[in-house]
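Batch manifest, entry 17 of 40.
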Amino acid sequence: MAVPKKRTSKSKRKIRKTVWREKANKAAKKAFSLARLILSGRSKSFCYTVNNKSSESSESTSIDESDDS
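Output type: structure tokens
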């Protein structure tokens, strides 16, 4: 037969929640730092691909418009 577990104290709950928040803050800080590094253009060890599809399509439409003029 199933027996209900003992209730977790407020202090344990608070400690666990604090640990969880600290982990989340650390991950967010790391991601933000990486994003700043990529956007600054000074990254030498981090490789990533740039998606230029949207810029190519906008350039082609602007070129087409200038040809008509």
